[in-house]
Write a structure and sequence with these properties.
The longest helix has 18 residues. It is globular, with a radius of gyration of 16 Å. With 192 residues, it is an alpha+beta fold. Helices cover 26% and strands 26% of the residues. A hairpin with a 4-residue loop joins strand 9 and strand 10. The chain has five helices and eleven strands, in the order αββαββββαββαβββα. The protein has a single domain, classed as Alpha-Beta Complex (tt1808, chain A), CATH 3.90.1570. The strands form three sheets. Strands 3-6-8-9-10-11 form a six-stranded mixed β-sheet, sandwiched between helices. Pfam families: Uma2 (PF05685).
Length: 192
């Protein structure tokens, strides 16, 4: 993964264009090139869109939308899937770029699908966990094909409480209690 040595402000990041189709996250002011998604990660994200479209309007689902999170330096993340609130969807209407700014309400749910490797695990389990909690995101799912589990983090008094769902266990989502979904279904992108 490539990082830049120059530190960017959020304004500089929003205006940045290196003339390529590389995707970046801004992490503590540094541009960090995002790794390519695996085919399984893409399938899981698409499967989850199909699941969530049964319980929320399609207008509240986003893939590829950035979110500016708290930190001592500018940080912007690109989750694998976001479920917006109605208020956030209204705030994004008409914006030139699909990015959730600090003055906008937080999403209802963010999903990250972990790529193999310690760096990716640290990013999703440690850094994003604290960033998303500080941003006030009510629910954060970590889908981890390598560990064969889904972790559902629920925001309680500014910190996430963790529930781990392996294999065939039914996922319990406080935000979406009507979901009939097992960890295995998510991890196998709907295939039994």
């Amino acid at each position: 993964m490539t990082t830049t040595s120059k530190r960017f402000t959020l304004v500089e990041y929003l205006a940045y264009d290196d003339g390529t189709d590389k995707r970046y996250e801004l992490v503590n002011g540094e541009l960090v090139e995002m790794p390519s998604e695996s085919d399984l990660n893409n399938l899981i994200a698409i499967y989850l869109i199909g699941v969530f479209i049964q319980v929320v309007p399609i207008s509240l689902l986003r893939r590829g939308t950035e979110i500016v999170v708290s930190g001592s330096r500018a940080t912007s993340r690109v989750p694998d899937l976001i479920v917006l609130t109605e208020e956030l969807a209204a705030a994004l209407t008409g914006t030139a770029r699909s990015i959730i700014m600090p003055d906008m309400p937080p999403p209802a749910l963010v999903v990250e699908i972990v790529l193999p490797g310690k760096e990716n695990e640290d990013r999703d389990y440690r850094y994003k966990r604290s960033e998303y909690a500080a941003r006030g995101i009510a629910e954060y799912w970590i889908v981890d094909p390598q560990s064969d589990r889904v972790v559902v983090l629920t925001l309680v008094d500014g910190l996430y409480e963790e529930a781990i769902f392996p294999g065939g266990d039914r996922l319990v989502s406080p935000m979406f209690p009507t979901l009939e979904l097992t960890a295995k279904q998510v991890l196998r992108a709907g295939e039994a």
